[in-house]
Amino acid sequence: MAGTSTREGRLVIAVAVLASLVVFLDGTIVNVALPQLLLQFGGGLAFQQWVVDGYTLTVAAFILIAGALSDSLGRLTILRIGLIGFGVTSLLCAVSPTGELLIAFRAAQGLAGALLVPSSLALLASKYRGPVQTRAIGLWSAWTSAAFIAGPPLGGLLVDTVGWRWVFGINLPVVAVTLLAASRLHLPSTEARGRKIDVLGAFLAAAGLGGLVFALIEQGRLGWGDPFVLTFGAIGIAALTAYVLWERKATSPMMPLDLFRARNFSVGNATTFLVWGALWLGVFIVPVFLQQVAGFSGLVAGLATAPMTVISLLISSRVGTLAGRFGPRWFIAVGPLIAAAGYLWMLTVREPVNIWLGVIPGVLLAGTGIAITSTPISSAVLSAINAEQAGIGSAVNNAVARVAGLVAIAIVGSITGARLDLAGFHRVVIVVAIIMIAGAVLSGTLLRNPKPDMTLDPLPVDSNAARRPVANKPEGA
Length: 477
What we know:
single chain; 477 residues; mainly alpha
């Protein structure tokens, strides 16, 4: 908005970034700790998958209703509730005495995290429009994507120095700082509209995703013919079918299906599903393989993925600016191809594993591709809908990414077999590359650059750029 001060604008961006940063970080920081958790609690590959998916499941299942709450009750209100909940559940994860309780606390942590992402991103999406919004989202995307990718190296450092419990404890100071910063925001509350909350939709989504994830993970241990696997799989399919039917007729749907009538919204979310599913799978398998098969320490395994973080921080914001000027289409199409090349490079890995020749070059390429892709996807999705729908729109996009991660982690055992080895690692990186290429083809074929939007708000970063002419291509380019 035209009257937004530089100081206030920077504070809004800082709060949005910090609130989402911990959610993205906790999606992957635990990956390097999985071998240590296995040694302490046992449980095999299925336990490791549940530590990751227990968190991702509740984020994915409840992020949509969190988006509706954000639009209805106010972005800052929901953000503060989510921050307090995330801090408490992070502490509970850190002191967990058993593996079963750790999984339960991870699920509760994901529920709190579901409140943070749509409310924080909606702060930006409702504050700015047009290319300026793209740059704001670029900053948000750069830091949150960096946090997602930084999880393994930071987790490795913590595991090898102070222990795995600090993988969760590190969230506490970030939450405290974000709460303090949020308390200094005094934004006009224009969101609350008394919208009803779709409780049945939330229940059906949770039941559907939970049933399918249970079947996909446990089939690796029990087999597809096991009655429990078949039962939970059937429950998942039935619940998700009922969810779609309910959302079509609900007066206040958790996921308004009308949003998908916007071409870029539907194509952007489909691309998100493919690209982020592949990324979740790749970020999961590399550090686990380097520790459990190649025998490296958690710190080394984590540092092997560190170049992704550096690249994301260096170029994501700049990519956001360029996508705002020229449109997101070809950025989203080219980025996954570069990432696919990076994972295909990892097919050169042989035993004994040479990280410098077999892993680092692939990580550099993959990180570059993801940095080119992440901001334009968020921008394409959010610019396709009205500002008033920013909360639910961002929630849908993030839910799609989380569901993709759920499915990706759940199928790891089906790709690798019961025991991860070099051949299984090669199979996983091939699958990652194929999915990335599919995302590139989809976006390059069906996505369209939006029409120019001249509603420019001054952004406290490169403010002169907001006054320069916009060179977006017209719809259909």
